[in-house]
Amino acid sequence: MHWAFDLLGATDSCQYGLAADPITSKPGYKQECASHPTQIRFHNHISALPLLSLQKEAVFKGGLRGVMIVRDPFEMVASAYCYHHRGAEPGSSAAPANITEIEPEEGVPIMAASMLEVVRWMTSAYVVAKPDVLVVRFEKFTKSSKDFDNTVREILNFVFRNEITEKQKQQILNATAVEDVNRGLEGFSELPGANLGYNHTNDEEDMAVARKALHLIPDDMLAEYQQHRKVLGYGA
């Protein structure tokens, strides 16, 4: 969406909490939605209650069109372990300080405990998302370039409908191609200095090793993860 709003000239946006980067590129622009409620809003890790509140507010403001991404919770745990284990975001509250020294057999269950609240939020938002919010899957973005393009176009059609031209949609699609991991281009995740020099793409071999440790998650927590996966459409 960052590419779309920039190409369309949108600058006025807000976010819930100021931890993440703004969704529009006006230099130095960070506004909290509580004090600066704009039409373009970004929420990192949204859950059911704030989404329901947005839906209620939007009834009196012409409606809500939102997009949220879901991902297989098991993949989120494995990815979080790999990301922090290689030293990304040192000092993050999401991982223990010595995560770079912890092997997957111990580290994956630790990250499962850390990620559980985020997964709960994601699942609760997913349940109440439709019809105002389009749910797209992370896996569709990464499966192939064709799936990436189709997913971006699905988002553009949902959010903008016929309010922008097909030419504008194609321009946005062309611009977002740099975010496609299958094209090997350098998008926002690869910008020098972004994320303290660490991108959000993990080595597949490291991911495979982390996945093998998922069964070591404590049984009660593992059962909850399985339930979240079922609700989200991953696994039986």
Structure characterization notes:
This is Sulfotransferase domain-containing protein. InterPro entries: P-loop_NTPase. By secondary structure, the protein is mainly α. It has helices spanning 2-7, 48-58, 73-85, 104-128, 138-143, 145-160, 166-176, 204-211, 219-232, and strands at residues 13-16, 40-43, 66-70, 133-137. Helix content is 47%, strand content 8%. The chain has a two-stranded parallel ribbon. Strands 3-4 form a two-stranded parallel ribbon. It is globular, with a radius of gyration of 18 Å. The chain starts with a helix and ends with a helix. Residues 190-195 have low confidence and may be disordered.
Number of strand elements:
4
User: Span between N and C termini?
Assistant: 32 Å
Overall geometric form: globular
- C-alpha-based Rg, rounded: 18 Å
Share of residues in strands = 5-15%
Helix/sheet category: mainly alpha
Name the poorly predicted regions: 190-195
Nearest-integer average pLDDT: 89
Sheet with most strands: strand arrangement: 1-2
Protein name: Sulfotransferase domain-containing protein
